[in-house]
Amino acid sequence: MYLLWQSIKKNRYLRHVKKMSQNLKDMRISSLDHEEEMNAELIISVKTFPARFESVYITLLSLFNQTIKPNKIVLVLDESEMGNHEVPEEILKLRQNGLEILRVNDSGRSYDKLLPVIHKYPEATIITCDDDVIYEDWRVEVLVKAHEENPEAIIGHRGHEMLFNTNQELLPYMEWIPATNRTPSEKLLLTGAGGILYPPHLLNANLLTDLTLARSLAPIADDIWFWVVARVSEVKTMCLGNNSLLEYTWEESPDSLSIINRNMGQNDVQLGNVLTHFKITLP
Hints:
283 residues, alpha/beta, three-stranded antiparallel sheet, 11 helices, 10 strands, 16% strand, globular
């Protein structure tokens, strides 16, 4: 009975995703030209690779459909992951609406959704998004409004709240709970799928972009690296508590970074690495 119910849920979910995807394809894609002057440049950044070209196209359409438009949407591609693949024509056509394709050569894997974009646009406010999520049209507006009220904070839609045992020892990542808008910054680890807003010049730039150190301590956990850089930089983080997601696929690939980090305990290993290196005591 459980397997039958799971199958029904999966089919309903995939039908909903298909309908949402088709609705986005049928919509007229608006350009990112702004009628009103914005106080600062707002950029949405997405990192992808060939296996995700199908899903990232839908992701991009959903980002063009936001109630508050960014100045630019940047799609980051790592040349070492491209092989003989070409960017699909449907994605290339989005350049006329304001998409920029940024090609990089030094693979930072998931770090590439932020670091090369900050390097190219150091004065911009950057929102990072994942390449397999369909974003509701309110996602960017809610982040921007929260940023206007909290300009010195890094703000995300979703995250995890760290939990501790009776001896104040940190529990494993798998035992943490979804963060809410009441989760204090010192117990918050933002996760990128829902979208995270990074204001310019808050984080220690030398540390943030030290990819050699990042790869040695948290090679496949950019969320943990960005968290520790914020902590060392004494920058507040905030979660809005919007934890639901409309992901393009029902199941994650067994070799996806989130599966490896979450289910195989690598988040705990990499978090331990940064805590030890930076001599951080929690909570």
